[in-house]
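Box 4.2: Ligand-aware structure prediction
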Amino acid sequence: MRLLVTGAKGMLGHRVVDVARERGHETRGTDLPELDLTDAGAVRAFVDAERPDAIVNCAAFTDVDACEANEELATRVNGDAAANVARCGVHVVHVSTDYVFAGDARRPYVESAPVAPTTAYGRSKLLGEEGVRSADDGHAVARTAWLFGEGGKNFVDTMLKLGEERDELSVVFDQIGSPTWTGHLAPALVDLAERRASGLFHAAGGGACSWFELAIEAMRLRELDCRVVAVTTEEFPRPAPRPAFSVLETEREDGIRLPDWHEGVAQHVKEVVPA
Ligand SMILES: NC(=O)c1ccc[n+]([C@@H]2O[C@H](COP(=O)([O-])OP(=O)(O)OC[C@H]3O[C@@H](n4cnc5c(N)ncnc54)[C@H](OP(=O)(O)O)[C@@H]3O)[C@@H](O)[C@H]2O)c1
């Protein structure tokens, strides 16, 4: 099939392009500055010219703290632009986030769990989901979380870098989530495009852990001699509040079940060149 991937220079998008090409799909990646998805006319003209069979929309304004400082821009990029892509008459697989939830649950969030974002990023991504759904209920929305992978700024790489440089690191232990390797997620997104899936899917690494546990696992795999100290969220304030618990699971029979996060981190650490 002919596949268009937006956000193709990003951490997830470039992996989706690679996976789709490996599977033999005629794949076109786009990103800023070639195409600004907030420009509805430009998006329509681009899609009309490329005539893809499906679009995997990985483009987003992903800096959670910057979104908090500029919600208007976040709304345009994560909300309006997603709707622009969804209104082109082509099947869309749109990527969303665990931040659409309040993050105060005790049990994993499944697809039918009520949404209640507490950040500008979460609100803007929820607007994007709604824009995609209202454009055409044949589209698919895949929510993921705690992404890491080659070719993008991510927590695991930050820990590996700091672990090389320092003897001791403080990491929060009271935020629990679903670490997800792009190498596991990207094929699942291409699957959704191939089967023209519709509706809402949770698509995150299996199991759950804290940032503290994730840091320890990354250091262990790279055999770094750096002590990781557990600290609370209160000791580590950020401009946008972080969810305390935002583990994603699926309740769908035809849902996405990715390998356990340990496997994702192991593959990632093997793949990335030591700092
Ligand atoms: N990273 C995570 O932990 C995480 C967790 C849950 C869900 N997600 C979702 O997963 C998806 C992929 O995330 P990622 O981490 O791969 O993001 P990323 O690395 O930041 O890539 C996003 C790409 O979109 C581009 N972009 C931004 N504004 C655009 C616009 N107006 N028009 C066209 N392209 C634009 C960015 O370009 P610039 O870099 O030039 O701005 C960037 O290349 C996003 O939908 C994100 O919300 C991410």
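In the box above, the bound molecule is NAP. The two ends are 38 Å apart (CA to CA).
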